[in-house]
Design goal:
It is a single chain. The chain has about 110 residues and is α+β, with helices and mostly antiparallel strands. It has a single domain, classed as hypothetical protein tt1805. Helix content is about 25%, strand content about 35%. The protein is built from two helices and five strands, in the order αββββαβ. The protein has a five-stranded mixed β-sheet. Strand 2 and strand 3 form a beta hairpin. The radius of gyration is 13 Å and the shape is globular. The termini are close together.
């Protein structure tokens, strides 16, 4: 059984809070099955957006870079994504060190 999107988002936000990394929900998607996009804002005008993807060889889920560059360009990418997937969640993480914790155990599920 898979975790709901809302449960995963709440767990992710809690994990970020534990290490004092600010994050917030920019767009609330479908509670059950919405895709989750994570924007990492490094507070220097740059950003990266991650999305979960399936590794075709192993079937495992992993986080991949959807786009990176100037924050304004990343915001435009997220706006386009949400225009055709209104069920998607967008989480913004703000960390000058570039920490997002997506590579931590349990967050790939």
């Amino acid at each position: 059984m898979r975790l709901t999107a809302e449960f995963w988002v709440q767990a992710y936000l809690a994990r970020l809070r534990l290490v004092d990394i600010p994050a917030f929900v920019v767009a609330h998607g479908d509670d059950t099955a919405g895709a989750v996009l994570v924007k990492l804002n490094t507070l220097d005008g740059k950003a990266v957006v991650y999305q979960r993807s399936f590794d075709l060889m192993s079937g495992a889920r992993k986080w991949v870079v959807l786009a990176e560059g100037d924050e304004a360009d990343i915001d435009a990418t997220l706006t386009r994504q949400r225009s055709f997937d209104t069920d998607a969640w967008v989480i913004e993480v703000e960390d000058r060190q570039g920490r997002h914790l997506l590579d931590e155990p349990g967050l790939s599920d």
